[in-house]
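Format notes (please read before filing issues)

Several people have asked whether sequences and structure tokens are stored in separate files. They are not. Every record keeps both together, in the order shown below: the sequence lines, then the token lines. Line labels are part of the format and must not be stripped during preprocessing.
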Amino acid sequence: MGRTYLVEESIGQYLTELSTKVKPYVTGLLIGQCSPQRDYVIRAVRTPPKEQQQQESVGPPKLASLDEEWITTHASQVSRMLPGGLLVLGVFMIASPELAKDGQNALRKLIFSVEKSLSKRRLWKPAEEEVSDRAALQICSATKKVVCRTYDVQDPKSSAKPADWKYQSALTASWVALGCTVNVNIHIPLLATSPNHDLEKNTKNGLNRWSKQIEDSVFLINGQVRDEDTELLEGQKKFRGNTQPSTQFSDVKVLTQLCQGASARSTATVQVCGGSINLRGAVKCRAYIHSNKPKVKEAIQALKRDIINTLSDRCEILFEDLILNEGLQKKNFGREYHVLPQRLFVPVAGSSVMLSDYKFGDEAAGEIQERFVEMLDQSVQAEDMHIAEDIST
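Then the structure lines:
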């Protein structure tokens, strides 16, 4: 039996609206959460149109003109805006009947390209038991027929398996939110032999070492160390009758180990350094987990990944900004301070889940609103943007 996708009802309306505007096809991403039993789809987001696409629509439609790089870049940008527990679960395509035959091949290709692009940026490794199936959703713009299949992204020769696509209202109403603040003080040495323009590479190596520390940390949920295999909601009251459920929030403390255990041998390396990078500040992290008997280890894993992602994403954004505005020319860096972008959270309409973005100090609210429309096809009110933290350097 294939996988089951429980899908937020409003996505059905969104896809129907898109199908009325299709000329001759539209692609997009499915966003949600995997779990051992079933997967949850909480958003569908169309690929932003490219400006030149408007002029190119001459001659018979072809799927060969699909811009794979544009779609994978969109997936990378969107993945930065997802808190812990959420990921790009697959891709969708709404196409006219004459393109339907080639649609599945195009979707298969996209699924593997998107996964390759996203896994390149990750500083964590997927767990062995993790779900590696991703969804390929195809909708005919004329008949509105929905076909959902999955591919195993860990297997390049994977063939399509059928999957169930079921709509459900208030899908995330009783999901659990976990939040924590992590104080960061990372010292990354720059080797004297390393050229200055390797700053980004050195930072990534330093973050890699730090991410292993986070993986080995102890997580206290509401002040308690919990057994990983117990249910997260064990002992909590279930909602009954017409009581309106609200998001259950768990406060988490992260205890990082100061040194290795006595049994682990430590080897020191002496290296000649020409400088160093220091990352300092407090980062706000958040993860969401489904309410269908989630395990403690699922919740902790989601939060760990958010901690690691939020710092590496910010460093990436800072380097992109530096290259764009100043160019990272080979020069002798003195002591320089750069402010990492701050994290903000924005509610998703009709959901208890919030999405995230990053803001530089001089960025206006309007720029962030534009980014949400372009990347997530969602309009955001300025008063709904919650800046979560102080400035970090």
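For reference, the curators noted about this record: The chain has a mean pLDDT of 85. The CA atoms of residues 151 and 159 lie 6 Å apart.
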